[in-house]
Design goal:
The structure is a single chain. The chain is of the alpha+beta class and 214 residues long. The chain has two domains: 68 residues, Winged helix-like DNA-binding domain superfamily/Winged helix DNA-binding domain (Arc Repressor Mutant, subunit A), CATH 1.10.10.10; 132 residues, 2-Layer Sandwich (Beta Polymerase, domain 2), CATH 3.30.460.40. Helix content is 45%, strand content 16%. The radius of gyration is 18 Å and the shape is elongated. The two termini are 30 Å apart.
């Protein structure tokens, strides 16, 4: 009847829906259709979240998040960007954020899904520190295309551009276009930053205070 881990990869798709649109009222079927989670699993997840006090039924028998502040904090504490995702390091001679964004804007004409995250994403949404490295979620089967498009060289001793194979496709939910480039949703950016070193926690809390608001 209940789900053991509401922050597991597939389950987190539903969590993301609630937090990206905290005022929206959902049906279980709607959540299932938007996230690609089976109806049965979505039903169990909603029941678990209701039991935990994270969502409630409205007068119209819809479901809405009940405590987005606590739910986001719990997810951020559970989530670890470096452990969950597969990160590949590359080196680029042209990793300046402004020029890199220009390259990504040109990519928008091609059939390639991506989203900036971590400090690069934060710098476009709620600047806190100038990013030294650029992290980009991409589809794993198209890594070679990205290497060619961005003229990246493999790096064994670190790098300045990192292509990230996401732990789940849900990271692309509600990406936003900023200065012509795609960036993950505010809540995805927050959880990515939260446990990340190099002042990730500070950037996350700045984002939460200035943009997310709960």
């Amino acid at each position: 009847m209940f789900v053991k881990n509401v922050f597991a990869p597939i389950a987190s798709r539903v969590i993301r829906c609630f937090l990206v649109e905290p005022e929206r009222e959902w049906s279980v079927l709607g959540l299932s259709e938007v996230t690609g989670v089976s109806y049965g699993h979505a039903h169990k997840l909603v029941a678990t979240l209701m039991k935990l006090g994270f969502c409630r039924k409205t007068e119209r028998s819809r479901i809405v998040v009940a405590n987005p502040t606590e739910l986001l904090s719990r997810w951020a504490n559970y989530y670890d960007f470096s452990l969950l995702n597969k990160v590949r390091a590359y080196y680029s001679l042209d990793a300046d954020l402004d020029r890199f964004v220009g390259k990504l804007a040109a990519v928008s004409k091609r059939d390639l899904m991506y989203a900036l995250t971590l400090q690069a994403g934060a710098a476009l949404l709620a600047p806190y520190v100038r990013p030294a490295n650029l992290h980009l979620y991409v589809e794993s089967e198209r890594l070679d295309e990205w290497r060619q498009i961005l003229d990246l060289q493999l790096s064994e001793l670190g790098g300045n551009v990192f292509l990230v194979e996401p732990y789940d496709e849900g990271v692309f939910y509600k990406v936003q276009r900023l200065r012509g480039a795609l960036v993950v949703s505010n809540v995805q950016l927050y959880v990515d930053l939260y446990n990340y070193p190099a002042r990730g926690r500070e950037a996350a809390e700045h984002l939460r205070k200035t943009v997310i608001g709960f």
